[in-house]
Amino acid sequence: MSTVDTAWLRMDSEGNQMMIVGVAIMSQPIALDGLKEALTTRFLAYRRFRSRVVQDVTGAWWQEQEVNLDDHVVNLRLHDAPDGGCNKPALQGLVGRLSQQPLDPVLPLWQMHLVDNCVGEDGKVRQALIVRIHHCIADGVALVGVFMSMFGAHPDSQLHRPSEVAVEAAEENPWEQILLPITATTVKAIDLSSAMWLKSMRLWTDMPQMVGKIGQLGQTATKLALDAVKLTTMDSDSATRLKGKPNGRKHVAWSEPLPLSEVKAISKAYGCSINDVLMASVAGALRAYLRACGDTVDPACQVRVMVPVNLRKADGHQKLGNAFGLVPLVLPVGLEDPVARLREVQRRMDELKGGYTALVAMSVLGVLGATPKQVQNEIQNYFARKATAVMSNVPGPRTPLYMAGSQLDQVMFWVPQSGDIGIGVSILSYNGGVQFGIVTDDALARDPENIIRRFEPEFEKLVLLALMDEV
Question: Which part of the chain is the O-acyltransferase WSD1-like N-terminal domain (predicted)?
Answer without folding.
Answer: 1-277
